[in-house]
Structures are given as C-alpha cells and as structure tokens.
Amino acid sequence: MQCSKPLRGFTLVELLAVVLVLSVLAAIAVPLYVNTRKTSAARACQANLASIASAETAYATRFGAYCGGTTADTSWAAAYTAATAAGNAPTGGLIGAPEGLASAPACPLDATSAYTVQAVSGGACTISCPSRASHATDTGAAVTKWIVQLAAPGADRSNGY
Ligand SMILES: [Zn+2]
Predict the structure, then answer these.
(1) What single string gives the DSSP state of each residue in 15-44?
(2) Distance between Cα 25 and ligand 1 center (Å)
(3) What pLDDT digit, counting tens, does each position of 85-140 carry?
C-alpha cells in the first residue's frame, strides 16, 4: 500500500528563515575569528621579539656589542635568507653565532618585512616589528609593546634583558 500523503518540500519562507539564522551566526562568528587571529599574531610577534632580544643579548655578551647597524637595519635577516637560499649554512651576525637564532623570524602579520635591529647611541639596541602600529590597533595596547630596548652591554640590566 502506498502512502497517500504527498511529499512536501520546504516553503520559501522556511528557506528564508534558515538563511537568516545562518547569516546572523556568520555575522557573529567571522569578526570574532578575525579578531582572535590578529591578537594571536600580535602575541606571536612579541615572542619573536623576545627571541631576537635573547640572541642579541648572547651576542653582546660574547662580542661586547650588539649586532645591528646604526640605522634601521634588517640585514641580519637578509644575510640568513641569502645564505640558506644558496644552500649554505648562515655565517656571521646574529644568525651565525652559536648562541644566536636558528632562523630569521618574521612577523605573522607581515612575513615579507624583517624585524628592525638598530644600535643606538651609547651601545644600546632597539628591536622593533615593522607592523607594530597594526598590532597596537588590533589589540588596543601601546605600540611600545612591539619595541624592545636593550641596555648597552655592561650597563644596568634592570629592564630584564
Ligand atoms: Zn609583528
């Protein structure tokens, strides 16, 4: 015996209601996801800055001065890229020192720009992220959170480095 009740599909109103519910959920979830990604990138960037600061401190302990130019210098990262692209082990500078970095970290927000390492007057050193303004906007924190200041080798290290 066949079922006498005819099969019934969804009405237009029911489909529109489902589309509306999905749109509301997407409108809530997408901005949350984007915000979480940016906050996570900003935190990962701070960890990269701490790694570079640690390597710079070790370098300065060994050689008596920080590695980096007197102007905004990204050559420490370029030297690594050039050496490894040619199939060689990186030599010299922040990357080549045994206590230095194994690779050149890049900011998760902008992987094409290297971190800036700049030796400043008196033998101190400043390490900063090229995307620090974006990090500050994304997280609402001060831009100085993505700038690490290292005291001159042998100077007071009360800043933690
Ligand atoms: Zn960054």
Answers:
(1) HHHHHHHHHHHHHHHHHHHHHHHHHHHHHH
(2) 30
(3) 666 555 556 766 666 777 778 899 888 878 888 877 778 888 899 999 999 999 99
In angstroms, what is the span from residue 45 Cα to ligand 1's centroid? Answer: 4
- Give the confidence band of 48 by pLDDT, cuts at 50, 70, 90: very high
User: Is residue 6 situated within a structural domain?
Assistant: no
**How many angstroms does the Cα of residue 17 sit away from the middle of ligand 1?**
42
Please tell me the total count of domains within the chain. 1
Does residue 47 surpass a pLDDT of 90? yes
Tell me if 20 is assigned to some domain. Answer: yes
Cα(54) to ligand 1 centroid in Å equals 17
Beta bridge partners of 125: 119, 150
From 129, 79, 81, 139, select the one nearest 109 (Cα to Cα). Answer: 129
In a domain, 53, yes or no: yes
Measured in Å, residue 58 CA sits from the centre of ligand 1 at: 22
How remote is the CA of residue 91 from the centroid of ligand 1, in Å? Answer: 25
Percent above pLDDT 90 for the chain: 38
Residue 82 lies in a domain: yes
How far does the centroid of ligand 1 lie from the alpha carbon of residue 12, in Å? 48
- Note down the domain range covering 41: 14-150
